[in-house]
Amino acid sequence: MKPWIKNLYITCVYALLYFPILILVLYSFNQAQYSLQWQGFSTHWYHELFQDSELWLAFTHSFVLGTSASFIASVAGLIICIHLFLHHHQSNRALQSTLLMLIILPDLVLGIALLIFFNLTSIPLGFFSLLIAHITFCLPFAIVAINSRIHNLDINLYYSALDLGATRTRAITHVLLPLLWPAVMSAFLLGFTLSFDDVIISYFVAGPGFNILPLTIYSLVRKGVTPELNALCSITFLMSMLLVVAAHRLSRKTSS
C-alpha cells in the first residue's frame, strides 16, 4: 500500500470518529436556543452551565464516585498483580482469565447481573451500589495496566531485597512500588475515565437519591439537545481526553 493511500485512509477514519464531536463543540457556542439553528457565536451557554446547580451536583457525585471506584480498583489490582507476580500457581491463569472476561462482557449483561445481585442481597440502590458496580468493571482494566508493567520487572530484585535483610512488606513498598507507580497512576486515570463516562451499567444500579452526570445528560437528551448540553458534553469530553492522554503518557513512561 502506498504511503499517501495509507495516510488518507487513517485521516478518513479519524475524521469519521471525531467530526461529530467537533460539531458538538462548535454548536456549544451557538447563540440560538436550539442547536440546529446557528445564529452566531456566543459563550452564553457556558455561563448558563456554570450557574446550573443541579448539573454541578451531578458532576460532584460523578467525580466522587469515579475517584473512589478507580482508587479502590487500582489498589485491588495492584495487590492482585503483586500476588500473581510473586506466586506462580497453576490457578493464576484461570484467575486472570476470569477477571479479563469482564472486559469483553457486554455492559448490558453486567448491568442486569449486578441489579439482580443487589436485589437478592437487599443492597439499596444508590452510591454504594454504584461504587460496587464501577469497581467491578474498572478492576480488569487496572489489572491489565499494572500487569503489563510488573511482568517486565526482574523478580530477583525482590528476592535480593529479602537476602539483604528486608521484610516482605519493605521489599514490596521500597522496591516494587517505586517501579510500579506509573502503571498504578495510569490504571487510576483510566478507571476514573471509564467510571465518569459510564451510562449503561449505572442506569441499572443507580438509585433515585443519587444522580450522576452521565444519567443526567441522558435524561436531558431525551427532552432535546440544547447548546447548554453541548457545552456540558464539550467540557466532559475535554476532561476525558486529558485523562486518557495522561494515562497514555504514564503507560509509555512505564514501558520505557
Provide tags for this entry.
256 residues, mainly alpha, MetI-like fold, 11 helices, 0% strand
Give a verbal description of the structure.
With 256 residues, this protein is mainly alpha-helical. The protein has one domain: Orthogonal Bundle (MetI-like fold), CATH 1.10.3720. It has helices at residues 3-27, 44-50, 53-86, 91-104, 107-120, 127-150, 156-163, 168-197, 200-205, 213-223, 227-255.
User: What count of domains describes the coordinates?
Assistant: 1
User: Would you give the CATH topology?
Assistant: MetI-like fold
Main beta-sheet annotation = none
CATH superfamily: MetI-like
Order of helices and strands: HHHHHHHHHHH
Number of helices: 11
CATH classification class: Mainly Alpha
Number of strands: 0
Percent of residues in β-strands: under 5%
Computed Rg: 22 Å
Mean pLDDT, as a whole number?
A: 83
Shape annotation:
globular
**Unreliable parts:** none
Helix content, binned percent: over 70%
Q: Look at the helices and sheets and give the structural class.
A: mainly alpha
Give the CA-CA distance, first to last residue: 31 Å
List the topology elements.
Blueprint: H1 3-27, H2 44-50, H3 53-86, H4 91-104, H5 107-120, H6 127-150, H7 156-163, H8 168-197, H9 200-205, H10 213-223, H11 227-255
Short description:
The chain has 256 residues and is mainly alpha-helical.
